[in-house]
Write a structure and sequence with these properties.
2 helices; alpha+beta; 3-stranded antiparallel beta sheet
């Protein structure tokens, strides 16, 4: 349960973890499940470095710039980091 998203109770109920500290393959399956169920794939940018991120309180949005000189405005911004794997 430590890896599960809490924003949707039904999502929490439909996924059953095999152990309390799951290994990477199961976490990856869960994240793919969430991305598909919540139609998030179009909003995910992998292998993207954030060079700047600022919150605009008047618009209640985050303005994010990437290393590709892209600008994105979003209501939510979830950043995840990972080290490189051999």
């Amino acid at each position: 349960m430590e890896y599960s998203f809490k924003f949707d109770d039904s999502l929490q109920q439909e996924w059953e973890w095999s152990e309390s500290c799951s290994a990477q393959p199961e976490i990856k399956r869960y994240l793919n499940h969430v991305a598909d169920r919540c139609d998030l794939r179009r909003d995910i940018a992998l292998e993207t470095r954030v060079t700047a991120a600022h919150f605009d309180p008047r618009a209640a949005r985050r303005n994010v710039q990437t290393h590709r000189a892209e600008s994105v405005s979003a209501r939510f911004c979830i950043m995840a980091t990972a080290g490189s794997m051999p």
